[in-house]
């Protein structure tokens, strides 16, 4: 029996391979759990119920209020500038009530009062020009032409998004790579066990031939 058990003991290389496989399996499972609890679930909840709709511009206006933004001019150079608030009011094909358009969820969280946040420049005048350019774009180039937007009547009835921050591709990658890690780990363990089993059988057949 002792002899038989010794035959089935793994070599150092096989032992390392098994440990690597189990490590990848554990890493894949932990990544899936971590992403699911900390990022994927909130992202899906953020998108939950949101559907695409056709939006039409009702009004484009600048408010008198200005908001602060932070610009960077080097490694140790930071400052605060200000930009005017642009509001784009739209009507969706799913509701007759006007709604405020936002670039995406991040912009909505950063400044829920405005439809556009310009790249923060050091000069307030440059920020104003960027906002004015965006205002002309919505007034003159888009005008009354319908465009696709994203609307959630239950969570945010007064806001619509021009694009989604968390689209299907991002969510797929967040699920795909931990799953690939898990499957590679399983494959390493299975191949190591199969290789050991074949080696033991080959050794047994070789001994039988010499008897």
Automatic annotation (TrEMBL):
Which keywords are on file for this protein?
Glycoprotein, Ion channel, Ion transport, Membrane, Transmembrane, Transmembrane helix, Transport
An example of a Gene Ontology cellular component annotation for this protein is: voltage-gated potassium channel complex
Localization, UniProt: Membrane
Q: What are this entry's molecular-function GO terms?
A: calcium-activated potassium channel activity; potassium channel regulator activity
Q: Which InterPro entries match?
A: K_chnl_Ca-activ_BK_bsu
Q: Which domain of life is it from?
A: Eukaryota
What stretches pass through the bilayer? 20-42, 175-199
Q: Name one GO biological process term.
A: detection of calcium ion
Tell me if Glycoprotein is a UniProt keyword of this record: yes
Instruction: Using the UniProt record, give the first listed, main subcellular location.
Output: membrane
Membrane topology of this protein:
Multi-pass membrane protein
Q: Which PANTHER family match?
A: CALCIUM-ACTIVATED POTASSIUM CHANNEL SUBUNIT BETA (PTHR10258), CALCIUM-ACTIVATED POTASSIUM CHANNEL SUBUNIT BETA-4 (PTHR10258:SF3)
- The entry's protein name is KCMB4 protein
Q: Which organism is it from?
A: Bucorvus abyssinicus
Please state the gene responsible for encoding this protein: Kcnmb4
């Amino acid at each position: 029996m002792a002899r038989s058990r010794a035959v089935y003991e793994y070599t150092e290389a096989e032992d390392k391979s098994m440990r690597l496989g189990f490590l990848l399996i554990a890493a894949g499972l932990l990544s899936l759990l971590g992403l699911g609890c900390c990022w994927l679930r909130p992202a899906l909840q953020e998108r939950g119920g949101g559907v695409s709709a056709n939006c039409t511009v009702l009004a484009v206006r600048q408010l008198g209020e200005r908001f602060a933004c932070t610009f960077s001019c080097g490694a140790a150079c930071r400052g605060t500038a200000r930009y005017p608030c642009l509001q784009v009011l739209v009507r969706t094909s799913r509701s007759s009530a006007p709604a405020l358009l936002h670039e995406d969820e991040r912009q909505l969280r950063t400044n829920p009062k405005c439809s556009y946040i310009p790249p923060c420049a050091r000069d307030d005048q440059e920020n104003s020009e960027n906002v004015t350019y965006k205002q002309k774009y919505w007034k003159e180039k888009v005008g009354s032409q319908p465009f696709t937007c994203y609307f959630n009547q239950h969570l945010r009835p007064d806001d619509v998004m021009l694009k989604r921050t968390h689209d299907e591709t991002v969510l797929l990658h967040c699920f795909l790579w931990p799953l690939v890690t898990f499957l590679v780990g399983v494959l390493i363990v299975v191949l190591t066990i199969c290789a050991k089993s074949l080696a033991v059988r080959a050794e047994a057949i070789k001994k039988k031939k010499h008897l």
